[in-house]
Amino acid sequence: MFALWLRRAAAYVLRIVLPTSLMSQFIGTLLFGRSSPEGTAGTWIVCLCLLFCGIVSALSTRDGQSWAHRVMRLQVVDQDSGMPISGSRMGLRELAHLADIVSLGIGFFWPLWDGRGQTFADKIAKTMVIAKI
Hints:
Blueprint: H1 5-32, H2 39-59, H3 67-72, E1 74-78, H4 87-102, H5 106-109, H6 120-125, E2 127-131
Antiparallel strand pairs: 1-2
């Protein structure tokens, strides 16, 4: 059974968006005295924090579940075999989420009308997110 979009979105917010935001604000405050440095420095801080959070997500993956997937009772599986993906494959999938981002966010909403419930990253990585009972 495909995972509900709202649960998927919550897992992404928990494992990527929230930690990236908090970490970049903390680093900006330490380095520049304000939580949102402007210009190139602020962009680099956010990009590096995003990369770091993606790596942590991949390293925390067990049986196709990052820590946030476990909390939301979701599992990322291979679209052909249905087997859980590895941490390295989760890392590649996290990197593929750049396609969801550069499409102005449309890729994140794609599961709402896609027959397999896949984001652009899922299509690239050949994965699906299912609800784990």
